[in-house]
Design a protein that fits this description.
The protein is of the alpha/beta class. It has two domains: 105 residues, Aspartate Aminotransferase, domain 2, CATH 3.40.640; 139 residues, Alpha-Beta Complex (Aspartate Aminotransferase, domain 1). It is 37% helix and 16% strand. It has nine helices and nine strands. The strands form two sheets. Strands 5-6-9-8-7 form a five-stranded mixed β-sheet, with helices on one face. Helix 1 links the parallel strand 1 and strand 2. The structure holds pyridoxal-5'-phosphate. The site of pyridoxal-5'-phosphate (PLP) has 8 residues, from loops.
Length: 254
């Protein structure tokens, strides 16, 4: 914060390490300082987290992800008071972005199943996170629903479900070879679709950072981010286990 600060922008849980921010605390602090708060609620979804109730001013979503839910549209969403929305809309009218009717149609149709999809993805993610936590080839699992995760208590307080996103680090195996061996989970940069997808933050979202900068924020080369879909949780566990078994230990590769 400096005397010039006008907005605090947060994300919770964050991409890709699922760090949990105490939303209510930030909102209260910002109100005392008369600073506007914005949260990116994409990972949590409106099903699992409602930041306006925690006194955040403006909530944004990548509608491309869970709201669309089928990896076939690109849009965004802003949720706030009428007063703030008027200002945003008047700027939007000047700048000119508007969705075409096909995307509106797909989005409206998808939103009808948002709750069902996210509840199932949340359930599946918990099963997969627990499975990975117990797996000997996995070093760390980042999921707010695990009771030994740093943000668990805050997440339990401010979320109604822990969401469908998780990340993990593989021990002593090439993460890219592991991704190639997966049969059900597809490599893809986007997230929140009905199909499970996986990506390496080092090679995608964080590729423009230096290796040192990535390490400083905890994004290692063995980190993989998994977006859980609607497949059977046992199939997902088996896919992950089979792929881990197929990739040799780095120490054994000449
Ligand atoms: C958390 C989060 N917010 C926003 C965005 C931007 O979304 P869009 O692709 O709809 O511009 C992304 C994209 O990956 C994201 O992961």
């Amino acid at each position: 914060m400096t005397p010039k600060t006008k907005v605090i922008v947060i994300e919770s849980p964050t991409n890709p390490l699922l760090a949990v921010v105490d939303i209510e605390k930030i909102a209260q602090f910002a109100r005392e300082k008369q600073v506007t708060t914005i949260i990116d609620n994409t990972f949590a979804t409106p099903v699992n987290q409602t930041p306006l109730e925690l006194r955040i001013d403006i909530v944004v979503h990548s509608g491309t992800k869970y709201l669309g839910g089928h990896s076939d549209l690109c849009c965004g969403m802003v949720v706030c008071s009428h007063e703030k929305m008027e200002k945003i809309l008047s700027l939007a009218r000047v700048l000119g972005p508007s969705l075409d009717s096909r995307i509106c149609y797909l989005l409206e149709r998808s939103m009808k199943t948002l709750v069902l999809r996210v509840n199932e993805q949340t359930k599946n993610a918990m099963v997969v996170a627990q499975f990975l936590s117990d797996h000997p080839d996995i070093a760390n699992v980042y999921y707010p629903g695990l009771d030994n995760f740093e943000g668990y208590e805050i997440a339990k307080h401010q979320m109604t479900g822990f969401g469908g996103m998780l990340s993990f680090e593989i021990k002593d195996k090439d993460p890219n070879r592991f991704v190639e061996e997966l049969k059900i989970i597809s490599p893809a940069v986007s997230l929140g679709g009905v199909e499970s997808t996986i990506c390496s933050p080092t090679l995608t979202s964080h590729v423009k950072m230096s290796a040192g900068e990535r390490l400083r924020i905890g994004v290692t080369d063995s980190l993989l981010r998994l977006s859980i879909g609607l497949e059977d949780a046992d199939d997902l566990k088996q896919d992950l286990d089979n792929a881990l078994k197929k990739v040799p230990d780095i120490n054994q590769v000449k």
